Amino acid sequence: METGERDPLEILASPLGLPCGLRLENRLVKAAMSDSLGDGAGQPTEDQIELYQRWARGGVGLSVIGEVQVESRYPEKPGNLVLRTDRDHAMFQRLASGGAEGGSRIWPQLGHAGALAHAPISQPAGPSALDVEGLRCAGLSVDEIKALPRIYADAADRAKADGFTGVQVHAGHGFLLSQFLSPLFNRRSDGYGGSIEARCRIIIEIVRQVRAAVGSDFAIGLRINSSDQLEGGLTEDDSLAAIELLSNESIDLVDISGGTYFPGAPSSSDRRSSGPYFVDFARRARQVTQVPLMVTGGFKTRSDAAAAVASGAADLVGLARALVVDPELPSHWLAHDAVDPTFPRFASNPLGGVTAWYTMRLTDIARHHERDVERSLEDAINEYDDRDDHRVSAWKRSFGRPGE
Ligand SMILES: Cc1cc2nc3c(=O)[nH]c(=O)nc-3n(C[C@H](O)[C@H](O)[C@H](O)COP(=O)(O)O)c2cc1C
Q1: pTM of the full structure
Q2: Ligand 1: distance of its center to the CA of 138 in Å?
């Protein structure tokens, strides 16, 4: 891709000021990844602090910690952090300061898995009760929905108290707020379902209450799907309408992704197509919003990253797997002799294998072992599942059995 007259290094190295006043030192963001490094009771671990410190030292402008739960009842996985009232403040503060070394920024992604909550430690509930092959969940009552803005606001307030400089509200990939946006999950006929305005309503209510809690100088990002990429799901046109509606709110960054974990759909992190996935959509989003945009998915080369920014499609580039392959990637891309990462090729393609492989490698990076470990996708799935099984017991000890 052409980047025009400008040097890719200069484009990616330029700082960006967000509407709240927070400055990001460069255009490269470690996109949200559920690192599965919580201790099973929602608290950070030494490994996790080391992981984010490595990314900060590697020169990333911002890291988003994946799936930090706003409450303990609907986690995505038992290795998630939880912004609980009785959390270990010292560990959260060390995570916030470790991930901010050298001027880097770190924000938790505020997660709530809703209908896709990890069943062994949850009673999954989404916008509507569903019983389809591969997915059974309860529907949230209006009172439960109306309680959500306060829950998100309290979590954001706790993140701020522990030293984080922003949060990302997760409304992508088929988790709770993405479920509200998606007709696949949201079959409500009250004020929270039907038109895109109604499906977007809970997100707007959450953003308003989070802003009221954190004040004007704290960043609020939002991750949203460009589409669900599944028949009957959120369409690009509806996503653009949602972005336009949300632009009237006090938001600092919209992170564009796509895909859903509704049964039968491939996930963004298991995709293998070449080239960035959502730049064309970001260009369309640019027409309907003034809010800074980030685009995530499929970036493998510095020239593609620079082109996304230089073309005006996005202000920031989100990188997930590239920063697992090379945690020091920003310092390489922000040097004159840029080296693009070499991605692994896998002989087989078991479902969920790629995500499990990258997740296990996050632990290797945290322990500085990544150069020593070779793992098949099948082994990665086994290690990942075994670890989660152990953490399920820890979670139940800490938070009780689902429904108790
Ligand atoms: C191991 C792993 C965990 C992920 N966890 C999350 C998550 O917690 N929240 C989220 O929004 N996206 C998550 N993602 C998706 C990434 O943020 C990203 O959208 C996707 O991997 C595509 O970007 P990439 O091509 O740069 O990897 C995860 C991806 C990977 C590989």
Answers
A1: 0.97
A2: 26
